[in-house]
Amino acid sequence: MKDKNISIPISFSVNKEVSDKDNRFISVTIDVLHTGLNFNKSIFSKEVVDANIDTIKNTPILGFITEVFDDDKDFKGHEYVITKDKNGIKRKYIGEAFGLIPESCNPRWITKETDSGVEREFLQVDGILWTKFQDAADIMLNDIEKPQSMELYPYDIDGYENDDGDFVFTKFSFDGCCILGSTVEPAMENAKIEVQFTMSDFVKSIQNELNDKYSAFTK
Predict the structure, then answer these.
(1) pLDDT (tens digit, 9 = 90+) per residue, 74-102?
(2) Buried b (16+ CB within 10 A) or exposed e, 36-56
(3) Separation of alpha carbons 115 and 188, rounded Å
(4) pLDDT in tens, 111-138
């Protein structure tokens, strides 16, 4: 598994800014992975995830932003370019870090029903996005939800192939979480990033809308 790049979709939900007075951060909740078989034909058990869960701490929240149409921007996927130098051909990762999963990410398990009607257990953690990177913050807040995919450290993977040809993980390390574009289909069912506004955000948006309507009326 040494030379294999593994990426598994996950989901984010934006909760609120970390504090009312500090606009540098947006708090996010990430549904990292679900147990059992995923569309990439690999399997994570709860026991194996629990044994390796600490490796997600201090890993980046990643993405690659591109223009789609009419100057609109969106995330893309796990993006690489092929480069060549005197040492040969290399595969270079060109995604950027737009946030962090900190030590205080509070890993926990949740259960939710997917579109197929199957209840799945998801690993969930907290993270932050940096508003300094305005394009990423604007896309997340404007689009409400996005698909998402975790990344694994390729040199720290162990497992075996079962009788059905599926890869069963026995050991791994997290290497980041990548926000995907709206047209990129995740390998895990219903993996997404979902915005969850606080009441103060809701009141503020209503107030802004009323102000806009009043301004239009007075003109």
Answers:
(1) 999 999 999 888 888 999 999 999 999 99
(2) eebebebbbeeebbeebbeeb
(3) 11
(4) 999 888 999 999 988 888 899 999 999 9
Residues 6+ away with beta carbon under 8 Å from 75: 63, 64, 65, 66, 136, 139, 146, 179, 180, 181, 184
CA distances from 60 to 19, 95, 179 (A): 21, 11, 11
Residue with tokens 């969106």: 74
Pairing assessment for the beta strands 174-179 and 148-152 based on DSSP bridges: antiparallel
Which residue, chain included where needed, has tokens 């069963």? 168
Phi, psi at 137, each rounded to 5°: -65, -40
pTM: 0.80
Integer angstrom CA distances of residue 71 from 112, 117, 203: 36, 38, 30
- Token pair, residue 36, equals 């059992």
User: Does the CA dihedral 100-28-23-78 come out positive or negative?
Assistant: positive
What tokens were used for 149?
């995919």
Degrees (nearest 5) of the Cα angle 77, 10, 192? 80
**Token pair of 182 as six digits:** 């709206």
* Residue 112, burial from CB neighbour count under 10 angstroms (0-12, 13-18, 19+): middle
